[in-house]
Structure prediction request, 54 residues.
Amino acid sequence: MGRMVDCIPQTARTARLVGLCAHCGGTCNRMVSRTKIDQLAGIFDLALKDGSEP
Prediction:
């Protein structure tokens, strides 16, 4: 689905990125530091689980 990724907060310091694989359509998951969300928003079209924009 292009660069669309859901960002789901996990703990006070981490979040989980969830997207779909462009090759097989399977779900991809990646744990990231919350401090990197702004940087990742420049690469991906992030949608936070609560509906707000990063």
User: Anything to note?
Assistant: The helical segments are 37-41.
